[in-house]
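I am still learning, so would you mind making up any protein sequence you like and the tokens describing how it folds?
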Amino acid sequence: MPYNRLYTVENGKNYILEILSAGEILGDIELIKKIDCLCSVEAMTNVEAFALPMPLVISLLQTDIAFNKLIIDELAGKVINTSTRTSVQQLYTIRPALEILLALQASQEVSLIKEDMAAYLGITLRSLNRLLKQKANHEFRILVK
């Protein structure tokens, strides 16, 4: 049940912040920081979602240690995933990032359309097509284990 979190920048381009899977929590950051939606969410497959009323979540955060631990663990996971992805994008060329994305698609058993792949990688559709052509011509090898 993968879904992605879309962030639209000022020039109108969408940027996929992350691709999430079953069991992920959404809206926690917005609730804790008391802000409107940080980004939109788009289902990539059929999704079953459960919504908790804000007053209940606030009450649980104030009174339930187990719930707090769940939220803290989930937020820590988001920080780890985001920092890992950012590091890969800063340290390597776009090729390893593409390979990681392709591996992610395979592990989640989902196919992204090219526009979403480009949005996730932060590149243009033209650049993605060029990379995919190079990959098809075996001009670079798979680095992902």
